[in-house]
Amino acid sequence: MKKINYIFFLALLCFGLQAQEKGDVLIKNGTVITITNGVLENTDVLIKNGKIDKIGEDLSASDITTIDAEGKFVMPGIIDAHSHIALDVVNEATSPNTAHVWVGDGLNPYDVGVYRALAGGVTISHAMHGSANAIGGQCETIKHRYGVLNPEEMRMDGAPRTIKFALGENPMRVHGERNNISPATRMGMEQIFRNAFEQGKAYMKANKDYAAGKLDVPPLYNLQSEVMADILKGDIIIHCHSYRADEIYMLLRVLDDYGVKKICFQHVNEGFKVAPELAAYGAHASVFSDWWAYKFEVYYSTAYNATILAENGVVTSINSDSGELIRHLYHEAAKTQRYGGLSDNEALKLITLNPAIQLGIDDRVGSLEEGKEGDVVIFENHPLSIYAIPQQTIVDGIVRFDIAEDIDDMRLDVDPEETVPAFYELEEHSHEHGEDKCMQDVYEFLNHKH
Amino acid sequence: MKIVNILILCFLTVVGFGQQVEKSTYKDVLLKGATLVTVTNGTIEGDLLISDGKIAKIGRALEAGEAEVMDCSGKFVYPGMIDGGTQLGLGEVGSISLTQDSDEIGDYTPHMQALTAVNPNSVAIPVTRVNGVTTVISSPTGDLFPGTAALINLHGYTPDQMYAGFKAVVMNFPSTGKRGRRDRRSEEDIKKDSDKALKKLKEFWQQAEVYAKINDGSYNPQLSAVLPIINDEAPLIVNVNKKSDILAAIKWSQEKEINVIFSGVADGWRVADSLTKYDIPVIAGPVLSIPSRNSDRYDAAYTNVAKMVKAGVKVCLRTNDTENVRNLPFHAGFAAAYGLGVEEALKTVTINPAEIFGVDDQLGSLTEGKVANLFVSTGDPFETKTQIEHLFIEGWNVPIESRQTLLYDEFLERDPGADNKK
Fold first, then answer.
1. Within the 332-361 window of chain A, which residues sit less than 8 Å (CB to CB) from chain B?
2. Which of A425, A442, A443, A444 to mutate to test the interface with B (most CBs of B within 10 A)?
3. CB B29: neighbour CB atoms within 10 A?
4. pLDDT tens digits, residue range A226-239?
5. Taking CB atoms and an 8 Å limit, are A418 and B187 in contact across chains?
6. Do A409 and B295 touch (CB under 8 A)?
7. ipTM passes above 0.90
8. Which CATH number fits the domain that encloses residue A120?
9. CB pairs under 8 A between A and B
């Protein structure tokens, strides 16, 4: 037993050390799905110092980890534009506007969910604040460097700032129903946003006036106002939890009034009803493949949503919002072939390049191109086939998941209160979905039926 | 030219109206020149005649007679898939409790009939069947004895039209696991709760056994509901997942000398030998689940079915879902990919559930004389991109249409578009 602990500790140490650097790896003879440059048969991908150095035939490099990918499919690491893994907390459900908080303050690199995501080929996820508030907290784009113990090393340095907004039932329940304060309706919701943008505008103006000498004192520092101002300046991408067409359209009008362009609607189950408007505005959409009916605002959904949005020219991605779904986003993307017949490349874009665009990181990841970061997943069978099995997942040139090499128990920590690892019964389905993950940390005090 | 236009317009109008009220049709149909994946008798290139709701004949170059001929060349025919555990029809909108009919109040409600509360017009039913799932167990949920589950075909306007010939009382075996990620009970508290539940189970069963012996016909719906189990006339479906609980449930069922079907069975791979030894069939799933323990391998739920089948356990699948039972073929596909193989996986959603529920004389394969529950597809129904083109349930030719397909038809090219003009 002691010996096992020792090995465990050593393994941790190795992981930890490994994370300090970027890796080199040569993937030989695979079918390389580049996303931006077609499918290349019998092709090698050379990753050096964490970056894709070369894609071509008969590449060689000395003294380098080599993976034989003959008969296998090599594609860019999958990106999830909506998840809550690696987070200690998700919701600061205390006010309709909590723009000043940031989930990046609660990153948890020990979450085994990160490893499970890697085992599904996911290399990057957008760790989001929850949907309890109309304006939630800022989010964090993380790289799945499972094994690092320092939360700082989870962050994708240089990724644009993002913030969570939320429309509809969740903020209405938390604030309207529970606290009897606005927003209790979708009318109230609109005014929360207008108010907050005015707050940011006034703050910006006061700062400007002070700088120009028109004011004797600067405005009192207010982080919430700073963040609203940053949104107005275009420094933060809004990711807005939304379901119904009317509320989506409402936010488009509000944003248009304030000149805010960077908007990605999340879930957006009824996005298909306003797809022409979303496309015209340049708004993005990040959707479930087929979740519906877990609450009333998603009752009139369709699994053809992603296809309709994509066919109407909306930059669309498929996300998980779930520690389970994140493990097979390649399958979720394939559902657009059953529901609407998207081409292979269009379907794969939904989980690679498009979410990268939505997170503002498409210059670095989302396709296999020389110069981009070395985030790669290797599949047995085509990734859109139901029989696809991820074999290795590589982040920054470092193999973080290997189906053949990894031990069964990949936890990085052990709960000291457990004599044996706890067994979790499946949460009852209707409740699990009725209480979507975006409402994590909220249900305890909503007194919801269990 | 004008006449042609008028004719086209008339045709479109008729088709247009037809779509509004597209109904199932019931007549003899000959599926011609298909690849028939029979499940129990290999794969046959040939024809299949549907007559009077049954699979009347399978063979080569069958005579159509009066039957409508459907050209199926290049297409595949499969028996309808069966989901061994759902709440389909018992819940409409997850978060709205007044639309939820699966969980009655009380620890002992085995007399609650799922078949009574199944809503034949649930929007989720067409959404499910257009993926080739023709038959499901709809099951109550909740406490120790939540009620009686029923096997239903996903077509019909009354529960009686839908009933597919099998009912069973469901029991949630007292669990020593956590109820979910938010369960903050300590190990001691969990043990206490489970002991309490075991005591309740023991007392209830004692009463039932006494009731069975006295057999005085007194009105006791709870105890009456479990009499067929005690009298060895019906099996009991036992939801149980954790290794130690599975072993306890085996011991309990052996002591009581009753027939059981285990459901869930997440740790089945750990106790497969015991399940085989006592010949206990299993309704496994959902396959698409995270592991039950943080220490378990990431694919524990994907590989569970294959491991049990290899050990000799008879397994069928369940999604344990309500609105997304349509994903049953994908659960089967994942099990196939992770060790089970396509052929065995197909059995877990066709003939195995039919045998486990004792309806294999009616369902579960393409066999002459069986109920015509089947579908025509462009290929392997587990493959995500495969299209289901025709669907027959009890011989009814059911349109491939649901509210979700209708929304697609309406909104793919919306009129008016963004500019309010054509």
1. 334-335, 337-341
2. A425
3. 21
4. 999 999 999 999 99
5. yes
6. yes
7. yes
8. 3.20.20.140
9. 195
**Domain membership of residue B313 as a residue range:** 83-362
The mean pLDDT value for A261-265 works out to 98
Q: pLDDT tens digits, residue range B148-199?
A: 999 999 999 999 999 999 999 999 999 999 988 888 899 999 999 999 999 9
At B73, is the secondary structure helix, strand, or coil? coil
Q: How would you classify residue A268: left for phi > 0, otherwise alpha for psi between -120 and 50, otherwise beta? A: left
| Sign of the dihedral defined by the CA atoms of residues B48, B49, B52, B56, in that order | negative
Residues B262, B330: one domain? Answer: yes
Which among B94, B241, B222 is positioned nearest to B148, based on CA atoms?
Answer: B222
Give the pTM.
Answer: 0.94
Query: Distance between CA B41 and CA B64 in Å, rounded?
Result: 23
Number of structural domains (chain B) is 2
> B289 to chain A: nearest residue by CA?
A324
Is there a domain that residue B9 lies in? no
Residue B18 lies in a domain: no
What distances in angstroms separate CA A35 from CA A121, A176, A348, one per listed residue?
Answer: 15, 45, 7
**Which residues are A285's β-sheet partners?**
A265, A316
The length of chain A, given as a count of residues: 450
Per-residue pLDDT, averaged over A273-285, amounts to 98
Residue of B405, B414, B408 lying closest to B128 (CA atoms): B405
Site from B384, B400, B410, B415 to mutate, A interface, most A CB atoms within 10 angstroms: B384
Residue where one domain finishes, among candidates B319, B335, B362: B362
